[in-house]
Design brief:
heterodimer; A: about 280 residues; alpha/beta; Rossmann fold; 2 domains; about 30% strand; globular; B: about 150 residues; alpha+beta; Jelly Rolls; four-stranded antiparallel beta sheet
Chain lengths: ~280, ~150
């Protein structure tokens, strides 16, 4: 195929493709997961996101939360926070949503191969990490220890609870979940994720950490990991900024000399650590 | 069988404490076991000792009228409990064993006396308490931000 033909056949990054909603499920209060049914196989790398378009309302960037080994369906986990996500939440099975993507950088799974892998997720941050966790579990023997640490606001706010419980039952991974506060219905730890990170059984020399959650949580966690002996280059974070075009042109998501939509959302921590300390950036 | 001194020496709070200091405080220490649900400290009561948790989980709790207890934080092996003894304050929270808890108790009158007699021991224990308190304060500050909302 000539370059001209390739360009003509390439999907237009600016044009949303209509995709049917095949299944929808409420995860926790204000959060739901869609299983979309793309008409053609949809390949993506763990950590990437799509722009989802609610017809006539607007477009939002949403991480892909499904299994990267299954290109026949597309999972998105969405929290209702504004007018677009509210409009998306009103859609039902059989409706169509506009999809542009996938966009952005991916979790460094190839680099993690042969090393211990530590996933630290907070709140809805488990959704963008889920494809990476599923990939690691699918190729479990390629990695050293696999540790997942998850923090939520309360037991009722634990995302993908059934799946977390299933993973916790495996003999080949360690999973710890903590909540910020609880009643008597919770038997796990109460406190912030950094506490569990401090206790995690990792070998700092051969460990790669992937963090996703509120930025403050990731900063504190990265600091804890550095105290444990990890270099900032062994830590990866997924950042959020206001993304509009998703191809690095509009500049809404600029972070220093980078665009989060194009150079991120997954960054190596040493490349962004100093920028995360700049107020208002 | 291991003696109290060597087990005490292995607790994270006392890590790297000079052997002569461990010998000094061993006289203030008891090895205790708490059944699930048993309280190590109660809100409003003066704490007579400090606990070094060896095994099990302790919930720091409070409660609202007609409400269930609210757990604010859980403490794990390696943690210290009952640090209000360094101030005139009484305990602010209930501390309840979630499961079987094994802990060293350090009698505070005894410990305080030995810390006064040996300022180097006093400094070593106070530094550790300050570090522990700072770590807990940092965690609670992060928790207070309610970042997952």
């Amino acid at each position: 195929m000539s370059i001209g033909e390739a360009i003509r056949h390439a999907p237009n990054a600016y044009v949303p493709v209509p995709v049917r909603i095949g299944h929808t499920a409420r995860d926790i209060d204000g959060v739901f997961t869609w299983v979309l049914e793309p008409s053609e196989p949809f390949a993506f790398a763990p950590g990437q996101f799509n722009m989802l378009y609610a017809h006539g309302v607007g477009e939002v960037p949403i991480s892909i939360s499904g299994d990267p080994n299954d290109s026949s369906s597309l999972h998105h986990t969405i929290r209702v926070v504004g007018s677009v996500t509210q409009a998306l939440g009103a859609l039902e099975v059989g409706h169509e949503v506009g999809v542009r993507g996938p966009f952005g950088s991916a979790w460094p799974l190839a680099e993690a191969s042969g090393q211990d892998v530590l996933f630290v997720a907070g709140g809805l941050g488990l959704a963008p990490l889920r494809p990476a966790i599923l990939s690691v579990l699918a190729r479990r023997n390629e990695f050293g220890q696999v540790i997942i640490i998850y923090g939520a606001r309360s037991p009722a706010d634990i995302l993908f609870r059934n799946e977390l419980e299933r993973w916790r039952g495996r003999f080949d991974i360690t999973l710890e979940a903590t909540v910020d506060h609880s009643g008597t219905d919770w038997y796990g730890p109460v406190g912030v994720v950094t506490r569990l990170v401090a206790e995690a059984d990792i070998d700092p020399e051969y460990c790669l950490a992937m963090l996703c959650g509120p930025e403050i949580m990731m900063r504190f966690t990265a600091r804890e990991l550095e105290q444990r002996g990890l270099d900032a280059s062994q830590i990866w974070v997924s950042l959020e900024r206001s993304m509009k075009c998703a191809v690095g042109l509009c500049g809404h998501c600029q972070l220093g000399g980078t665009f989060v939509c194009k150079d991120g959302p997954v960054y190596r921590y040493d490349r962004v650590a100093s920028m995360l300390l700049v107020r208002g950036l | 069988m291991e003696d109290l001194e060597s087990i005490l020496n292995r607790h994270a709070f006392l890590a790297d404490l000079k052997p002569e200091h461990v010998k000094l405080i061993v006289g203030c220490a008891k090895n205790l076991r708490f059944r699930p649900g048993e309280f190590l400290a109660r809100e409003g009561q003066k704490e007579a000792c400090m606990y070094l948790i060896r095994r099990g989980t302790v919930a720091i709790e409070t409660h609202a009228p007609n409400g269930e207890p609210i757990c604010i934080e859980t403490l794990m092996p390696g943690d210290v409990l009952g640090i209000s003894w360094v101030t005139p304050a009484k305990a602010h929270f209930d501390c309840r064993a979630r499961d079987t808890v094994i802990a060293f108790s350090l009698d505070h009158d005894c410990l305080q006396r030995k810390m006064s007699e040996d300022p180097a021991l006093g400094f070593a224990i106070t530094s550790r308490l300050l570090d522990n308190t700072y770590q807990r304060l940092s965690r609670l500050r992060l928790q207070q931000l309610d970042v997952y909302r």
